[in-house]
Amino acid sequence: MDALIDLDDPSDWPDALPHMRELDQLLRCPVCKEYFTTAMVTASCGHTFCSLCVRRCLTQETKCPSCRAPLTESELNPNRLIDSAVYTFKSGRPQLLAELRNAAKPSLSAAHGDTRKSPGEIGPKRRRIGTRSVGMADRSDVSSENTKTTSMVDLTISDVEQMITSDMCMTNSDDDRGVRLAPQTQDAGRESNSDDSDFMPGESSHTPRPRPAAGTQACVPCPNCQEPVRQARINWHLDRCLAGKSTKEPTPAPARKQAGPAMLLQPASSATKCALPRPTKLAYSLLSESKLRRTLKDLGIPTKGDKQQMQARHVEWINMYMANADSMTPVSHRSLLRRLAAWEESLVRPPENSKPALETENDVAEHAAKYADSFTALVAQAGTARAKPAKDAPDPDPLPASL
Amino acid sequence: MSAPLDAAVAKRLQSELMSLMMANLKGISAFPHSDNMLNWVGTLDGAPGTAYEGLSYKLALSFPSNYPFKAPTITFVTPCWHPNVDDKGNICLDILKEQWSAVYNVQTILLSLQTLLGDANPESPLNGAAAQLWSNQAEYRRVLLKHYKEHAQQ
């Protein structure tokens, strides 16, 4: 169950902020329930999905997953504004959640002179508090508390360029989509940032984070370990110190691969050395096994397995390839091939030694008894996560408005 | 111990588990049955005001490795006497078959099943006897309780 820890979820937002919850939900793909990755909008019914998600759905059935209206891949159009909105939202999310959490905690340091409100009071008031303290000097301690997730905010464009050039070695010569729309979405990203400024006070992703004001450099001793700590960082330090974690000041995390408006400035890399040819759909029933194998070989994808396996691989390859081509930040075809291999491995059915589904009432009772503890633990974990909206909180699926 | 599960599938199932637990809906629950996230057990209680009020059923949920692009397989583990459930526990429900869509999730399925219990479709029966009796709800309830007592309770 450790894996649950990585989940972020609309229910991370406190009950008192239903609109944030809803916004969080709205920026997620109805198919994979994750934030949109390369959002595509359908031409006829106007529903939005991740490119790969909707393409996989259309492989099964040529209907819109949300409304079941007839739909083909040619009716999918990129929805760049959503991509930018997701990027902006994701960048500001940890910071805002941390603000909410901090504001809900009783004050531990003089640096936080605000009168603290009880957690139940989160509301318009809380919002103001959050915004104010972000505007104040302690913004840096809040955002570095989440270095991992907010590090993108600190990236300069040159960092991003470096990431791109090191990671990307593809451009489709027949596809200029990597570059298109760049300036437009760039604006959109910035615009949504400033529109929400009283709500999501994240810095613009393109400007370096301002240094804290001089006054906050003053040191105070930590009540726990007696180490002198910068006043502005005392809360952050205490959290780590009490939890027994390293209290070393975080250095800006190395650049992570992630799409973002800053990247949109960058035309798709000029390197074309490992570009594979664009696959096209095939009428598999009309192809012999050897013909199909040759086609796969020409496309540069693995040719092992029987016809059925090759067909499945080819279908998935088209989906991955097309979704990658839709992306504003396509990955190299080499990484794409790795994803294809990982996908294929996951299709292998679980081995027989995993027990079959429960057969009898006894099994069920036994199972319930065996897992009673972990169930209670999970419920408790869910409860505390709700109380201190960490990133591992679960959600009460605000019921699919999209259904 | 189990084959590598596609990270996306695992993550989606975990987030469904979380959302299901947080939603804490009355009369439905589900939980992974082993370390393998692809097999779950569920519980379904009959909705109040229906013939199934007060009855509780166990379900087995089995997710394909390309979930949610293919529907999960859901069967009743507790014998269920119902027009659209056969004696093996197989369920006749359109959204689990041809009407499946990747936007559905465990929660929507369980809610649909709860609805199906109280609002059967006797036109396409898997259990002819139950389908015939469906129109007479008082008598239906009597037979149902008898069946439940004999088969579902130990």
TrEMBL record, chain A:
Pathway: Protein modification; protein ubiquitination. GO terms for molecular function: single-stranded DNA binding; ubiquitin protein ligase activity; zinc ion binding. Residues 29-68 form the RING-type domain. Residues 107-149, 169-216, 383-403 are annotated as: Disordered. GO terms for biological process: DNA damage tolerance; DNA repair; protein monoubiquitination. It catalyses: S-ubiquitinyl-[E2 ubiquitin-conjugating enzyme]-L-cysteine + [acceptor protein]-L-lysine = [E2 ubiquitin-conjugating enzyme]-L-cysteine + N(6)-ubiquitinyl-[acceptor protein]-L-lysine. Residues 219-246 form the UBZ4-type domain. Residues 284-318 form the SAP domain. InterPro entries: Rad18, Rad18_fungi, Rad18_UBZ4, SAP_dom, Znf_RING, Znf_RING/FYVE/PHD, Znf_RING_CS. Keywords: Acyltransferase, DNA damage, DNA repair, DNA-binding, Metal-binding, Nucleus, Transferase, Ubl conjugation pathway, Zinc, Zinc-finger. It is found in: Nucleus. Belongs to the RAD18 family. NCBIfam families: rad18. This is Postreplication repair E3 ubiquitin-protein ligase RAD18. The gene is RAD18.
TrEMBL record, chain B:
Belongs to the ubiquitin-conjugating enzyme family. It is an enzyme of class 2 (transferase). The keyword NADP does not apply. The active site is at 92 (glycyl thioester intermediate). PROSITE patterns: UBC_1, UBC_2. This is Ubiquitin-conjugating enzyme E2 C. Residues 8-153 form the UBC core domain. Keywords: Acyltransferase, ATP-binding, Nucleotide-binding, Transferase, Ubl conjugation pathway. Its EC number is 2.3.2.23. SMART domains: UBCc (SM00212). SUPFAM superfamilies: UBC-like (SSF54495). GO terms for molecular function: ATP binding; ubiquitin conjugating enzyme activity. Transmembrane segments: none annotated. It comes from Coemansia spiralis. The keyword ATP-binding applies.
